[in-house]
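User: If you would, consider this record:
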Amino acid sequence: MIKKKVHKFKFYKRYHKYIGLSVAVFFILFSLTGILLGIKKETNLLPKTIKGSSFDLQEWISFSEIERIAILEIDKKVENPTIDKIDARPSKGIVKVIFKQEYWEVQIDATTGEVLSTERRYSDLIENIHDGSILGNLFKISYNLLGGVFALFLVASGFLIWMLPRKIKKIKQNLDQS
């Protein structure tokens, strides 16, 4: 019985070590980018949101006009700009237009159409590194699936590596008392 437990212990310890070493770089990268994403609003990773002139949606210009203004603005920096998403902020009176190319964002006063800010969203780059999508969707799915499986294995095997020596010690004590 003790031999079986010792064999299990050695098995889990060996594979815990090899898998841990194999995925350590990914876990470090995942941790560091996660930390940066956690503080993105307090750093220069995400442009500061500027307030517009009116919070009343009735006074806002059309989204097609906002799109036209944003494309004219970003056309100076990027060839053939493509909008990824439009983020309306009624409580701030602005619309953020986010482009697919080079992580650009244009903030526009939703009432006047004035361009308030044109900056890069470095937090989007870090998010793409964090989730693996920077290397494509197939890599993202594989990276997250395997990362989750390996993390679960490392937690379970780490628990067993911690627990098995205690069980072995208890079995030995019971054998000594018999």
